Amino acid sequence: MDSAQMVVNTLGGLRVSINGQEVAFETRKDAALLVYLVATGRPHPRETLAEMFWEGYSQADAQRNFRRMLSNLRQAFGDFIVAPRGDFVAVDFAKSVQFDFAELESQLVSGSELLDDEKAIELEGILRRYQGNFLEGFYVDSPEFERWVTGERERLLRRVLNGLRLLVNYHLKQGRLERGIEIVNDLLKLDELDEEAHRLNMIFLTLSGQRAAALKQYQSCRQLLLTAFGIEPDQTTTALYERIRAGDPLTEYVVQPTSTSRASISSLIRSTPNNLPSHLTPFVGRGTERAELRQLLEQSDARLITIIGLGGIGKSRLALKVAEEVIALFPDGVYFIRLADLTSVNQIGPSITTTLGLESYSDDRVSATLGDYVADQRMLWILDNFEHLLDGAELVTEWLADMPHLHIIVTSREMLYLRGETLFPLDGLNFSPPENGVTSDAAELFVQSARRTDPAFRVVDSQETAIDEICRLVRGMPLALDLAASWVTVLTPTEICDEIRQNLDLLEAHQMNIPARHRSIRAIFDSTWGRLHETEQETLLRLVVFRGGFTRSAAQQVAGASLRMLNLLLSKSLVYRIGQRYAIHELLQQYLIEKLQADPDFIRQLEIIHCQYFAGFLMEHESEIVGGMPQVALEDFENIQQAWRVALAHRDFETMNRLREGLWALLDAQSWLQEGVNTFRSAMQVLEGQTEGEAGINHGRCLALYGYFLGRTGQREAGYKMSRQGVSLLAELDAHDAYILSAGLLAELASTDAQRLEARQLIEVNAPLLDEGSISRIDSVIWRYAKLLNDMGHEDQAEDVLKKLPAQAQGDIRPRGQANLDWQQGQLHQHRGQHMQAHERLLKSLREYQALNYEQGVAWAQASLGNNALQMGLMDDATSYFLDALDTAENANLPLIALDTLVGLSEILSQSNHPREAFMILGFVLHQRTLAPETRVKAQTLLDTYMAQFESDAVEAMQTRGQAASFAEMVALVKNILKA
What we know:
The two termini are 37 Å apart. A 5-stranded parallel sheet has the order 9-10-11-8-12, sandwiched between helices. 43% of the residues are buried. Helices cover 63% and strands 6% of the residues. Helix 26 crosses helix 30 and helix 35 packs antiparallel against helix 37 (778-791). The protein is built from 47 helices and 15 strands. The protein is an alpha/beta fold and 980 residues long.
């Protein structure tokens, strides 16, 4: 592992990876040992570590258990784990090890520090990396380790709280009340008993006109202190409360121009020749972009920077903000030259001379005049809105050649195509959903704009999601956010969101002081569209057929877009890149779709080409997807869905056949169960009544797949019935391949003795098909067949079936098929009481499932490992595996596995002196309508066993409580007990 990189993320939970591949630990104590070695950064005696993790055990037992832990770590992490002096153990930090806790701690200040604009932006970025408490939700049975974790957690938390306090005071001094309130609330989420934070919030709320909220904040603080410590707030807090209640405006806190950074910037602006305009609205976000542009301007060789982007994306505002921040670099002048209203290239020079306060000269003397005047002066020019004057771009080259210390920032919707030009593509504001209460820049701008329209506007929890969706729809475009927010007096954020999806004209302004070109998004796009060549327009319209972006190859084959054309559209900000893919801004896509509506034949032709391309794409990668490697198609999932919809709409049965298996495998691999139900239900509606030929085969297979996904969502009986219909139809049509694959799915859904017997007969009546070796994906049929035999109690026959597979599959077993087979083999060992062999095989399947990111398989393997450990009496291991399985099942929406896992956890609770809670959990599980029969039998057997321990009144009370509980309440109950 010399070139390997280990990444240990501990904030908000624990995730460890090597070269990007997440590592699965044998036990939680193994994981705890690794974290302890990484965090402490020094060697530890083996004896000390063994005692830490196996306190209360004999020395021999502790050492034996520790050797197993160390062996597990060495197997997983290789040379990262070393014993430099024989009896000592450490992590080799000579190798590449990243540890988020240490990196964050090293960047956080430990005391007080005066913040300026740059430091505040940097500190906010650092604090965003705090994704939660150190090892949050991670517990092991080791008091010493837990004490250490608590100390480390509190130490880092103090640093984070200190950083937040610095930011709060900074925003208070700057008069940024709304941002200050948000950060104070972040403080209180981390430490609700921080009385200073409560006082700061009272001050911010009062200054922002929310006196009632400030008074309520005091009452909240008082109640928290009384409940926690039985004390009243201190005199400072109470005195502040009395002042606010009496109507004191707290004038001493009103922003004064005393900030060193702001004062110095203001004095520089006053002392440096410039015409930088002031703004009526505050600047929001762009911390990264501002830092990058400042760095470019500090480099003498980056003298021409072109900020390109769609109209309304914020190019001009960003250029002006950065000009303010770097004004000290250009003591001879910073000038903003407006070009939007110019109609001729010949007007550019005179416009600049006028802005600089020079006399007007004829065109042939302008360049000479500028050269004489600027000469060796250090100046910055911002040439704003250059896109319609590109024929004059050579003038920029001349000026830069004649004026060696001149820097130019150009804002344009299109690059200038000049040698030496540094492009700075600009997208919208960050619109990612908020994390840990931190609002995205786009959402912050929307709220600010909304409050200018309606000062009473406040964000409630129910609106946060809608605001985030608005930000996503407009892709953080500042102008669109501003225009959308202007409707808050008559529409809720949810209604605004719905309107934007249906009507681009909602994004239109009526303020008189907004330039006509920015009065609406449509006006911006009309202007851009009018400057395009006909071939560019047609290519752009063809690209609209894609959903969720496209690759270069897809663009060329579907839309006829050459690499040169793609590059041209990129240079005009009409498409943007995400990694190796391209996309069109969502609002521009909506505008272009409207243009396409006028030619339905053209749309139909485009859709068919797109559909055929992705049918071929899916067939090309079908083997990889079915084998458990869906990544090749995930980025194009929206395009594949669109292709499926088009094939259905045109009743194109041949194309449906090409799409069907890859689409099923993709949905199954990602455990997108409800999407699978919807996908194949829509197909059945189109195929209803089709019983012959290609259409009939499609119908039978789609029935089977619809039933499969229905069963996976918990509707086992309905799913089995639907899949059974599909198998019968395929049998009538002699569709051998589709038949045997569908019969395998039917075997997985069988849950009663009668269904299992029927499914077995349906497979065995065509048993020769299993021996031919010609059926594609035979491994997926075999493992389900073996599982069915195992469930019926025929372990020997199941093992024989599994042993024959390599020959039947002709050695072609796909990765996911191998994982399934290993899991099934582990199940066989477990049924026979061969627990060590079962553990080995199940663990192998878990790693294989994890490598494939197949969440259902991961949950299967974790739950099976938990059951196996439980049968071996290894309670800690069983608890760890069950809790992992429960988390996986919750995240992947796998209710049947989650309920089965709860039954296993109830056994642990019962043996851990929590019989009442175990009883309640079983009552809850048995009350669920969607429950696997084997889970129901196991739960009822356990419940009957526990019932004898309690009086009848207690039994009734516990059953009532369990039946009335929600799934979330039951999960919380289990975790709170087992992680305590």
